[in-house]
């Protein structure tokens, strides 16, 4: 595995299109080292917890709890009929107290608060700890826990992940390694995204032989508090939190307009309607998708008068809404 390409000495104002539209991961050393949250975490876990609680106004968060024997790996149960943890609704200050109580345990229970919207749970936090992404309107989330492992998965948006307490290790795989990652169910997942079934700490190469090829293409980022990692859309990433107390802030944004639907829905609908067709019909539909989607260009609809191109013209918000309504009507017949 190779290290992720690294840039040093950048301030948030230095984030430009070359970085934020990169098609390769980039490790941005010290990008948010100036954040008050990072300074508090470097002082102590108690100082970091106290800093977070300054902004907490009450209300529950969703925490995932696992027994010590899962070793921090949030995953399926043995037959993939369920999961090896349970979600609970709890106050954030209670979760922080639980993390403190188990800080020195040799084998602590796994505690993990994932993907929680900052502006909802910690209003005011971003006034002191934020990154200007040049006019983008990202979803900013916070992740809090002890030593945890999250299986390799992809996200459709671009992602800027900022370590603000503890240490993390990201292992990234390019999108073309999909077939070598042995991905689990698409419609039954631990947290909404399909995950690799391979345990990165103990890969079973007899069961998952092609994973050796995935590892040959992997990139690794070892991160400390103050570091940030840009993860391009669709890159698979396995995430490990390496200390007894870890906090990460991340920003997700899409390069497509906000009104466009997620391609995941198109994939699932295609599986339902195309995958099990006879081979010749599947091949015909493959050609249609190539023509109208993957190899579409200015010539695709040039023979149709512009005013009559309708959905073959560049997509607009109004057209998207009309198509969505049409699809829903067809699907509900």
Automatic annotation (TrEMBL):
PROSITE patterns: JMJC
Pfam families documented for this protein: Cupin_8
InterPro entries on file: Cupin_8, JmjC_dom
Superkingdom field: Bacteria
Segments forming domain JmjC: 111-268
PANTHER family, alphabetized: HYPOXIA-INDUCIBLE FACTOR 1 ALPHA INHIBITOR-RELATED, HYPOXIA-INDUCIBLE FACTOR 1-ALPHA INHIBITOR
Protein name (Swiss-Prot/TrEMBL): Cupin-like domain-containing protein
Organism listed in the record: Pseudoduganella dura
